């Protein structure tokens, strides 16, 4: 059984290979990745949270 989520921002993965090889499908995947990492509506996006956490851990490791 193939499970597809209707809440996902990513395009449907259960499509023919010919459609997956199109430029439009690739652009839709790229836009979904960009939205997931950089354009979160909650104010905190994944890139910023990961960067801040990495920086906090680096400062801790240096004893600052």
Q: How many individual domains?
A: 1
- Based on secondary structure, the structural category is mainly alpha
Percentage of residues in helical conformation: 55-70%
Number of strands: 0
Cα gyration radius (Å) = 17 Å
Can you characterise this structure?
- It contains three helices and no strands.
- It has 64 residues and is mainly α.
- It has one domain.
- The chain starts with 16 loop residues before the first helix and ends with a helix.
List the SSEs and their pairings.
Elements: H1 17-20, H2 23-38, H3 46-61
Descriptors:
64 residues, mainly alpha, 3 helices, 56% helix, elongated
In short:
With 64 residues, this protein is an all-alpha fold. The chain contains three helices and no strands. The chain has helices at residues 17-20, 23-38, 46-61.
């Amino acid at each position: 059984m193939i499970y597809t989520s209707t809440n996902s921002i990513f395009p449907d993965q259960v499509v023919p290979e010919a459609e997956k090889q199109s430029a439009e499908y690739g652009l839709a995947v790229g836009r979904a990745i960009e939205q997931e990492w950089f354009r979160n509506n909650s104010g905190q996006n994944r890139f910023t949270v990961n960067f801040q956490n990495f920086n906090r851990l680096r400062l801790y490791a240096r004893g600052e």
